[in-house]
Amino acid sequence: MSEQNSKQTDSLDVQQPLEKRFEEVGKPFSRFIHNQTTGAMLLLGATLLALILANTSFQPLYAALEEVKIGFFVQDFELSKTLHHWVNDGLMVLFFFLLGLEIKREFIAGELQTFSQSSTVVMAAIGGMVFPALIYIGFNLGEETVSGWGIPMATDAAFALGALVVLGSRIPSELKVFLVALAIVDDIGAIIVIALFYTDTLQTDYLWLAAGVLATLMAINRLGIRSSMLYLLLGIALWYVVLQSGVHATIAGVLAAFAIPARPRAHPHKTAEKLQQAASEMEEIDKENPEHHILGSGKKDRILESVEQQAKDTRTPLRSWENFMERPVSLLIVPLFAFLNAGIILSMSTLQAMETSSLAHGIILGLVVGKPLGIVFMTWLNLKLGWGTLPENVTMWHLLAVGMLAGIGFTMSIFVATLSFESATELLTEAKASIMLATSIAGLAGISLLLVLNKRSLS
Fold this sequence. Notes:
Helices cover 76% and strands 3% of the residues. Residues 5-12 and 18-34 have low confidence and may be disordered. It contains 20 helices and 2 strands. Helix 19 (410-420) packs antiparallel against helix 20. The protein has helices at residues 2-12, 17-34, 38-54, 59-66, 83-109, 115-140, 157-167, 173-197, 204-222, 228-245, 250-258, 268-288, 292-295, 298-314, 317-341, 348-356, 358-384, 396-405, 410-420, 425-458, and strands spanning 69-74, 77-82. A hairpin with a 2-residue loop joins strand 1 (69-74) and strand 2. The radius of gyration is 25 Å and the shape is globular. By secondary structure, it is mostly helical.
């Protein structure tokens, strides 16, 4: 019976031998692109490359690359910035756009959907933001460096989740979900901090224009308009007016994401019915002429086009945008940001200054100590108040390990450091070096504790 099924399957295979071999060659690359740890690996690789270039004879070339001017003009209108600014104020908007999509999805149909589901995550995230900020302020109160209090609040979801994925089945799957939700709430806090406290001067006229563009985006959502091109054009317009308003341009990415429709045009049940009907019709066509599978037929094409349109109508624009943006952001934009921002000169004077620096102490202790302390304490408080429960198979020891991994601030911490000390080169270098050291300590500590917990559970 199995041989007969195998023969039937082979008869349905229309691929040529060379085509199959080509696919086999491409599979490792495809797996690499889709692997969850790939983004973290590229991020780490970009960081190491930047550090090597900045601390070798290639340093002048690296510095010149950051200052390359890119822009365009139309008659009297000109928009020109350095490559460094285009990445930080332009491409990183797409990173925040993806964050906004994830945040909206979690509130509509994810871990933040109800109070009972979200209370533990929200309380843990609040602790993971407030405690590090207080530790930093404690070290830097009264100093010019106090403005960097937002640096240790952030969590780099790509690095932290990459560490969990590497551990695979040795940790509860619920722990990965919890960390993702925690990082998303953490990102909400970071976005609010950037919008409220890292804005220099406001241009009221542009703020009103931004409000108008955002209102238009919300209106076309309510009207059921799904044109991707329209959302893209209005999103670009929102980015430009927010950039000119004085509010950091990345906030435009989050606002645009909130306006993306989260409901499908067609009900999934209708799609299931359409697929069944299409399958029956195609079977009838094959019975009439079994050779049509080689070149296809007009009837088949029309059926497939109809099914394709039905599938598009069933997918939500939010999910479509999220799937479309995920790989470019994680595989290109974030590594490029790291490459252009992590290239600091690690001189002995910088390392010696960190030993007695309140800035370095605030960042390192904020991320390494403040994060796990705040997450564990606020979760314990939440459980005592009876507001929520821990995820299944997750213990407080698991939570401590997640708190340590949440101390991997990297991308968001460097981003906030750039906003805090953009005009103070020495402070910015010291802040970045402290973030990298803290990220390394937090990551190793979190992974080590999870391995110990796994070993105990097996014994």
